[in-house]
Each structure stands twice: as structure tokens, then as C-alpha cells.
Amino acid sequence: MQSMRERSATVYSTSWCPHSRRARALLESQGFPFQEIDIERNASAARQVEAWNSGNRSVPTIVAHLILAEPPNADLERIFLRSRARLMGCTAYVTQWCPDCHRTLKWLQENRLPCTTIDIEADEAAAQKVQAWNGGNRTVPTLDVALRVVEPSNEQLLALLGFGE
What is the CATH number of domain 4-160? Predict the structure, then answer.
């Protein structure tokens, strides 16, 4: 996926769960960087998973962090909708004059996905972040996104992480 600049994930799992093993194997087969936390060995992680999942220790629960630059609507649909992930946070780095920024923000709004916007022409620190993510370029829109998915199918996980079609 050309719009993907960075991606990482934290996989909350257990050693005995076949869904956790399947997700881990899929991530490894794609060479995807992830950190794994066994909720049976980490009480605070177990409480966090329970908080996210109505008191249940549903595994795997996967939190993905993605940086997307100039994402086409098809990428947004794949990542946000097809994956069935829950949006945890979204910051859109934009400029006021950019038509792609307007298109992306409109798509997010139409799909009821809240996103904080930061104008990189008014915020130099934000502009420097965007440049760091985009090889020195002030590429807009750039989205900094955190998503969570619980017990995903392989197709959902691949969609979330920007693999596949």
C-alpha cells in the first residue's frame, strides 16, 4: 500500500489460544513488526483488554499504529471499514488549501470517524513530524492513526495492516 509510511502493532494474546497463534503467524509471515503481550503473564495488560472488551479477556486484541500519507479512499475503506477495527485515535495533518485534505476529511466525516486536524502551515512542530514521516516532504494529508481489532479473521487483519488488494 503506497500510502503506508509506518505501521506497528501490539498483540495482546495468550500462549494457548489458537486465534492468537494464527494472528501471530500471519504477522510473522508478512514481516510485520509487532510486540506481543501475554495477558496471562501481565496483569495490567489483562485489565486493559478487559476494559476494552466489556470485561472479557478476548484474544487476540490487536492495537495497530499507522501513518498514512495521501491515502486514497480505497485505502481508507480497507483500513477503517473492511477491517472492522475500532478507531482509538486519529490526527490528520493538513493544509487549508489542499483538495486531497478536504477529500480525506470529508470521507472520515461521512463515515463518522472522528479525527483531530492540525494545519501544518500554522504548527511548525507538526510540519516537522510530517517531514520526518515522509522523507523530508510536507506531504498532506498525513494521518496518524491508532486502531483496535478483537479476534480478527485473517482478512480483517490483512485489511487493517494494509496488505492484500
Answer: 3.40.30.10
Residues 6+ apart with CB under 8 A from 139: 69, 70, 130, 133
The amino acid present at 105, given as its one-letter code, is: L
Contact predicate 121/95, CB 8 Å: yes
Taking alpha carbons only, the member of 144, 68, 73 closest to residue 104 is 73
Residue-wise pLDDT tens digits, 104-142: 999 999 999 999 999 999 999 999 999 999 999 999 999
Residue 66, all three cell numbers:
499507522
Alpha helices in the chain (DSSP H): 18-29, 43-52, 73-76, 99-110, 124-133, 154-160
pLDDT digits (tens, 9 = 90+) for 63-111: 999 999 999 999 999 999 999 999 999 999 999 999 999 999 999 999 9
Torsion sign, CA atoms 68, 143, 121, 132: negative
User: What gap in Å lies between CA 33 and CA 126, rounded to an integer?
Assistant: 25
CA dihedral 131, 136, 141, 142 (to 10 degrees): -50
pLDDT at residue 110, rounded to an integer: 98
